[in-house]
Amino acid sequence: MQSKKNTSLSSEKGPARLRGSEIECHGLYGRGKKWGNPLLVYKNDTEARPGYNTRTRHEYREEKSVLLAKVKLLAKLINKSRRITAYTGAGISTASGINDYASGKDSKALNRPQLKSPFDAQPTLSHRVLGAMHRQGMLHHWIQQNHDGLPQKAGHPQEAINEIHGAWYDPSNPVVAMEGSLRGDLFDWLQEEIQKADLCLTLGTSLCGMSADAIAEKTARRALKGRALGTVIVALQQTALDSIASLRIFATIDEVMALLATELDLDYPKTNEDLKKRLKRETHWGRQCARCGIMPIMGPCVSSAKGHTKAAVYSCEKCASTCFRKDEKTRRLDSKGATSMQNIYSVPYKPNGDRDITLKPAQRLTLDLRAKSKIVMTDGPFAGDKGQILGRTREGHYRVEIIHDLTREWPHKQRKRPTTVRILGKWMVESALRGALPKLPLVSTTAVTSAAGAQKSGSGSNSWWFK
What we know:
alpha+beta, five-stranded antiparallel sheet, globular, 21% helix, 23 strands, six-stranded parallel sheet, single chain, 467 residues
């Protein structure tokens, strides 16, 4: 790695610029481009991350023409790549109002909204663009150092993100302290992705020596041997891996991602209001698809009368073509308000939380997330601890009270507590409905009406994703 000492600033002629090698300023693909070095826009000689392999808090920006050229090159790399992984740090979320560690007091990255709570943060433009890239098959995986759930709020599915340092919206994945150990299965997942990715988009992280930084470093080093496209680093500050980056861009992440979206002709939500409209779907509580077994049905719900019994048969939009006869009359159900089956789900998992997509509709596990329903944790360091559902947040997530076993070792060197209240993100429930999570974080212990019985108990629907 590059030494801890920063490259010096050049100000002999004109504005101060970053004085470094061509690769440190622009990346391997910048050699011979004759681009001007990044301009110094904020000077701060203190270390960005004291105690780590860090640099100073100096911040730099590209000249406009150089920035445009680098983004065009980035778009070409994306179109050439077979598997892209995003590796994001605190810098991607600063524009949402969540503080980072490395920025100085007068940082150019501090133009951010003021939040009453970090849980109120909404996705940045960069989150929305990355979410759209995944939906359009350009982004395959996301390794997230942050805990904020903003990728999922932007529509990125839970099963395609590794929250390696812990998560606010996964009760089985508590936040890891700086000196703590990573969760074993998430670390193994990281190692798998290191072997697969040929292009790593490293956005807003200081790359100061964390274990997860291996995804950026090893992808970059494979590129040096011609075995990958390498690592793209976007940040205002210097990092320890600049000297081996394939492409180095000094700019705010939102600025780069907006230009990239234009270059890729990407259809993405321009605002969070637009995002909410795109993600909003009806939820038909108590209605189970006769073909795939999903309950409740999210999105369009098709119904028909079957045989002489006139019993209602429901289907999700995906299964409608195979669920009914071609000559059978069907109708799309309207939205009609929730019923007693609200917050009850049928998921393809076993009672221990293990996934089993071969289960028939009547065999699927019933997950009762109504207030006061009892649960037991099935994954992560709290596996085996019991608790209950306290209700839902304003955004529709589930509040979970966990009663801890204090006789065993507490995870990640955290202070032991008899009880904690954690959040189960609604996107985790959606992934569970599709059988996309490898294991449920928790299961219900409260007896509820079976999924089959739920079909006869009445149903309704309301908006599920955003209240």
